[in-house]
Amino acid sequence: MEEIGDKDSRVFEIIIQTLIILNIVALILETVDWIYLPNRHLFHLLDVGFVLVFSGEYVLRIWACTAHPNYRHPLWGRLRYAFSTIALIDLLAILPFYLPLLGLEELRYLRSLRLFRLFKLFRYSAIQRPSHYFAPSSGQNARSF
Question: Which distant-in-sequence residues (6+ apart) come within 8 Å of 23 by Cβ?
Answer without folding.
Answer: 46, 50, 114, 117
